[in-house]
Amino acid sequence: MIKVGLTGGIGCGKSYVADLLRRQHISVYDTDKEAKRLMMESATIRQGLVDRIGERAYTPDGALNRELIASYLFASPLHAERINRLVHPVVQDDFLQWVDKQNGSLVVMECAILYESGFDRLVDEVLLVRAPERVCIERVMKRDGASETQVRARMAAQMSDEERCKRAHYIINNDGNSDVEGILRDMWMKIGGGRLHED
Ligand SMILES: CC(C)(COP(=O)(O)OP(=O)(O)OC[C@H]1O[C@@H](n2cnc3c(N)ncnc32)[C@H](O)[C@@H]1O)[C@@H](O)C(=O)NCCC(=O)NCCS
Ligand SMILES: Nc1ncnc2c1ncn2[C@@H]1O[C@H](COP(=O)(O)OP(=O)(O)OP(=O)(O)O)[C@@H](O)[C@H]1O
Questions:
Q1: Are strands 106-110 and 27-30 parallel, antiparallel or unpaired?
Q2: What digits encode the pLDDT tens for the residues 90-105?
Q3: Ligand 1 shell residues, CB under 6 Å
Q4: Relative to the CA of 91, which ligand 1 atom is closest?
Q5: Which atom of ligand 1 is nearest to the CA of 66?
Q6: ∠ CA(99), CA(36), CA(82), 5° rounding?
Q7: Which ipTM score applies to this complex?
Q8: Exposure pattern of 78-105 as b/e (b: 16+ CB <10 Å)?
Q9: Closest ligand, as measured to the CA of 6
Q10: Could you give the 3-state DSSP secondary structure of residue 38?
Q11: What pLDDT is stored for residue 198 in this prediction?
Q12: 14 CA distance to ligand 2 centroid (A)?
């Protein structure tokens, strides 16, 4: 089974690409979503978050206080490291268990911080999605109702596109003017060696 990492900075369009892949019946592990589930379910993470951020890391009804955690995490590299070190090993184990349950010849891990987290070690090939910084910022401001400062704080906790480009195997431009579906189809034939369409 080929494992493909789908990465790119905030707002580049990873989830957009992931949805196109799901429509082709490819299983995609959504790291953002699964990390938040595990931050609710894992007793180790819960305790660690309360120790680092305080009881308010969870709301009175037990949900994740995303706003507070985000303001802590994106305030400094030290804070980000503390949270990442707590959460990422649990996500890694969960991903590997998920992979074991999949049947296809190819699966995808969607993760903005694939290289920063070391999750690139878990995949065979990396597909990078790119868009100009201004486009990414505007997309996220519109999608999340976030301020430019909030988006830039998240970008600052991530690797530059220049660095990602050096390491990725495939690059897809999602600036809003390219035929992403067509490019993806061709690229996918190369990655999957055509096996994809035999599933
Ligand atoms: C801070 C949290 C609560 C914000 O939740 P929210 O629903 O607003 O955002 P969401 O999880 O959908 O993430 C949106 C984007 O933010 C960026 N982002 C999220 N976590 C990180 C991080 N640790 N470092 C850098 N960028 C990050 C990514 O571009 C991501 O795609 C949440 O992102 C979180 O708990 N992050 C820590 C766990 C983590 O590292 N998750 C990401 C991959 S494992
Ligand atoms: N080619 C496109 N055409 C139109 N809208 C797009 C395109 N690509 C992305 N978008 C929109 O831009 C926003 C950001 O895209 P998306 O959520 O896929 O980014 P992301 O890389 O997954 O971001 P994050 O790192 O926050 O998870 C979404 O609202 C999405 O629908």
A1: parallel
A2: 999 999 999 999 998 8
A3: 10, 31-32, 35-36, 39, 66, 69-70, 73, 80, 83-84, 87-88, 91, 111-113, 154, 157-158
A4: 44
A5: 3
A6: 100
A7: 0.97
A8: ebbebbbebbbebbbebbeeebeeeeee
A9: 2
A10: helix
A11: 37
A12: 6
**Residues marked as binding for ATP?**
11-16
38-84 per-position pLDDT tens digit: 999 999 999 999 999 999 999 999 899 999 999 999 999 999 999 99
Residue identifier of the C-alpha nearest atom 19 of ligand 1: 32
Choice from 7, 29, 32 to test ligand 1 binding pocket (greatest atom count within 8 A of CB): 32
Write out the two tokens for 1: 């089974």
The strand pairing partners of 2, in sequence order, are 106
Taken in order of first residue, the domains within the chain and their CATH numbers are 2-193 (3.40.50.300)
Q: Could you tell me the pLDDT band of residue 187, with boundaries at 50, 70 and 90?
A: confident
The percentage of the chain sitting over the pLDDT mark of 90, rounded to a whole number, equals: 87
The radius of gyration computed from the CA coordinates of the chain, to the nearest angstrom, equals 17
Q: Is the pLDDT of residue 193 over 80?
A: no
Please tell me which residue, 191 or 169, carries the higher pLDDT value: 169
Question: Ligand 2 in contact with 31 (CB < 6 A)?
Answer: no
Separation between Cα atoms, residue 152 and residue 171, nearest integer Å: 23
The ligand 2 atom nearest the CA atom of 12 = 21
